[in-house]
Design brief:
GO molecular function: sialyltransferase activity
Pfam families: Glyco_transf_29
Order of helices and strands: HHHHHHHHHHEHEHEHEHEHHHEHE
Strand content: 5-15%
Protein name: Sialyltransferase-like protein 1
Helix content: 40-55%
Distance between the termini: 51 Å
Largest sheet: 7 strands, parallel
Number of helices: 18
Family: Belongs to the glycosyltransferase 29 family.
Strand order of the largest sheet: 5-4-3-2-1-6-7
Radius of gyration: 23 Å
Number of strands: 7
Organism: Rhynchospora breviuscula
Length: 400
């Protein structure tokens, strides 16, 4: 009798363990590519969502307050003020070291430059450009108040500027990230079926068509990419073709000069070079910082000196959302249905599918951004600073 009872209990225990493993396996496949690293992230989603669904009121208010702060903003404003006064904020060697620190993976190859020769520049050249560019002065002044309170709901509905017909929306949009997990898929044809395909930072498509497709309707880049384009005659920055519009956000003040230089070389046959609105940049920054702080609390349980403790794990002045995140936010504002490809990570995959980089940048919190993508797809009502103002998030699909 006792032996029979022990056997029965053993089978019950084995069945319970098998059921638990099956459930966790299912969840791992639901969210991201099933590798050990991603499996752990997916398996804890229920806990994270419970915290997001009913967080302590005081904690939420504190997270929102801290997400509004921008320690790097004063340095950015100082750079803008220097430009308005006709001064270079940094020597070229200092700028180069800063770029290598924040974007060490950015390098040029024939895909990016098409062997376009360099052109020489001098501080005098920069200052002359500022003196003859009142439109740049107006642009710079709008950037001195990046946290001005906008109607964020209307801001996201703006057509960004690259459409010939204002207000036109795209039925389906694909935002193609640069994650190495794309090499484990064959989504190329599926990506090209979308009405608008958005790509990031001039990522290569030639040779990777079966994984990432070949169609491109909008190129979203950060200003480090444009800075390198500006060193070439004609500001060659159109690997997808000169009819593909470029939308860009600014990483540092000195890049405004590169924007002016490249705009001065544009012609009627080249698609426009557009920049993101400072209010839109501020919205993206607040959302990502909120999720990063919240993830830190969930993982460490430390909420007493939250900003100080979180700052020990990241350089708060350099912390920034990724290009991919802002491209996704752009798609939310101009598309009726958004599909995400290449947003995720795996211990067995390269950081970028088209480079040999394996390590991600410390100034981004990719896991926090993955949580945002999941919430946009499954529970958009919990995303702060967004739906509370009346903006309706379109359907978001995540392809793993």
């Amino acid at each position: 009798m006792k032996r029979s009872l022990r056997i029965s209990l053993a089978f019950s225990l084995l069945f319970a363990i098998f059921s638990l493993l099956s459930l966790l396996s299912y969840r791992s496949q639901t969210f991201f590519h099933p590798t050990n690293h991603v499996f752990y992230w997916a398996a804890r989603r229920d806990k994270a969502h419970d915290l997001m669904a009913s967080p302590p009121s005081k904690l939420t208010m504190e997270l929102r307050r801290l997400a509004d702060s921008d320690p790097g903003g004063e340095s950015f404003k100082k750079g803008i003020q220097d430009l308005l006064e006709g001064n270079l904020p940094l020597r070229r060697d200092q700028l180069r070291r800063h770029e290598q620190r924040t974007h060490p993976q950015v390098r040029w190859d024939p895909w990016d430059s098409d062997h376009v020769p360099h052109r020489l520049r001098s501080p005098k050249d920069y200052r002359n450009r500022i003196r003859v560019a009142p439109e740049l002065r107006r642009l710079l002044r709008t950037r001195l108040w990046p946290h001005r309170r906008y109607n964020l709901s209307e801001l996201l509905k703006l057509p960004i500027g690259f459409e010939s017909k204002p207000g036109k929306r795209h039925p389906t949009c694909a935002v193609v990230g640069n994650s190495g997990i794309l090499l484990n898929s064959t989504y190329g044809e599926e990506i090209d079926k979308h009405d608008l395909v958005i790509r990031l930072n001039n990522a290569r498509t030639i040779g990777y068509e079966r994984h990432v497709g070949s169609k491109t309707g909008l190129s979203f880049i950060n200003s480090h990419i444009l800075s390198r384009c500006a060193r070439r005659v004609g500001c060659f920055c159109h690997p997808y073709g000169e009819n593909v519009s470029i939308l860009m956000y600014f990483c540092q003040a000195s890049h405004f000069i590169d924007y002016l230089a490249c705009n001065s070389t544009s012609n009627q046959n080249k698609a426009p070079l557009l920049i993101t609105d400072p209010g839109f940049d501020a919205l993206c920054a607040r959302i990502v910082k909120f999720y990063s702080l919240k993830r830190f609390v969930e993982e460490t349980g430390q909420a007493h000196q939250l900003l100080t403790d979180w700052g020990k794990t990241r350089d708060e002045k350099l912390f920034h959302y990724s290009s991919g995140f802002q491209a996704v936010m752009v798609a939310l504002g101009i598309c009726d249905r958004v599909s995400l490809f290449g947003f995720g990570k795996s211990d067995k995959a390269k950081h970028h599918y088209h480079t040999n980089q394996k390590k991600e940048l410390d100034l981004h919190d990719y896991l926090a951004e993955y949580t945002i993508y999941h919430d946009l797809s499954q529970r958009p009502e919990v995303v702060p600073f967004l739906t509370e103002l009346g903006f309706k998030v379109p359907p978001v699909l995540i392809y793993l």
